[in-house]
């Protein structure tokens, strides 16, 4: 089976998390900013798309070369055997990005790459410069960084965070792979209780249940590779059946609460779509009224950020309530994703560790309070 140079993309700051996931799946990796590289064939393309919880996409690196002018870019792209990758009717959108490179016009870069592919395919398929682009989609991507160009084929399609279970969401939900990445930064593996006391649309609790039950996060969706005419269609079905056989029962409780009953109904719908509704105990509870008899677990939350001025006072009060309530549970490791630099002051305790992250374009901190081990 042909081997490819593959790589995953991910949110800023999660490279080590994705690399660790790939290592656990059995791959040797090389990491650079925003990408983790590994080798694999079609089976591995299916496996990583199906199982990676924390990445955005899995891509095939087709070619890497220096390009400081459009002629070089055109010629290098033209040299590739495009007919081996794209059928005559392929739809092949080209995304272009340029960072710190002489060729800085992204529309210009996209246009030249597209032109080179069209001309090469017209020659290979004996067409007169017209390609219908009426068939399946083969998403291509050209990325220039410091004058080095990379041409890639995206095997994923819609980003991996689009699991397919979240039909409804609250006002500002965490992306599914972002939530999974936060969980991977905790010791959570399903063997101890997990509590999400501000669950919103339920993403953290649902991703925790998927981890605990060893359910592949790509179970509910199709991928771009499903439409590639040269890709073995049996591989996806085989991988899915194998993944189903590895699912297991929940070992320890998962609690998800929120003050808002209407958003809890949305969370339940999402959990039902993910097949884990019976595994999560949903309750309408305000933070100030929260209590639990559970011990030695993980508390994780994405509380409101209070970015609007009128919200700041109520959010500060919420953070104070969190400190009062959750500091009563020192045997729980606690993790809070917050956009307020004054969080520790309001919470009433300095974090063991703080990690800078970006939730979309919003700069946030992941405050980590490690459990007191007796």
Structure explained in plain terms:
It contains eleven helices and 14 strands. It is α/β, with parallel strands linked by helices. The model has no long low-confidence stretch (mean pLDDT 94). It has helices at residues 15-24, 42-51, 70-78, 82-85, 106-124, 176-184, 203-212, 234-245, 261-273, 312-326, 343-347, and strands at residues 4-9, 30-32, 35-40, 57-66, 94-99, 140-145, 148-154, 194-196, 254-258, 280-284, 298-301, 333-338, 353-359, 362-369. 31% of the residues lie in helices and 22% in strands. It folds into two domains: 4-154, VC0802-like (2-Layer Sandwich), CATH 3.30.2130; 176-214 and 247-369, Rossmann fold (3-Layer(aba) Sandwich), CATH 3.40.50.150. Helix 2 (42-51) crosses helix 8 (234-245) and helix 3 packs parallel to helix 5 (106-124).
Under CATH at level 1, the class of the largest domain stands as Alpha Beta
| Share in β-strands | 15-25%
Structural shape: elongated
* Named CATH topology of the largest domain: Rossmann fold
Short description:
The protein has 374 residues and is α/β, with parallel strands linked by helices.
Question: What secondary-structure arrangement, pairings included, does this model have?
Answer:
Elements: E1 4-9, H1 15-24, E2 30-32, E3 35-40, H2 42-51, E4 57-66, H3 70-78, H4 82-85, E5 94-99, H5 106-124, E6 140-145, E7 148-154, H6 176-184, E8 194-196, H7 203-212, H8 234-245, E9 254-258, H9 261-273, E10 280-284, E11 298-301, H10 312-326, E12 333-338, H11 343-347, E13 353-359, E14 362-369
Parallel strand pairs: 5-6, 8-9, 8-11, 9-10, 11-12
Antiparallel strand pairs: 1-3, 1-4, 2-3, 4-7, 6-7, 12-14, 13-14
Helix pairs in contact: 2-8, 3-5, 6-7
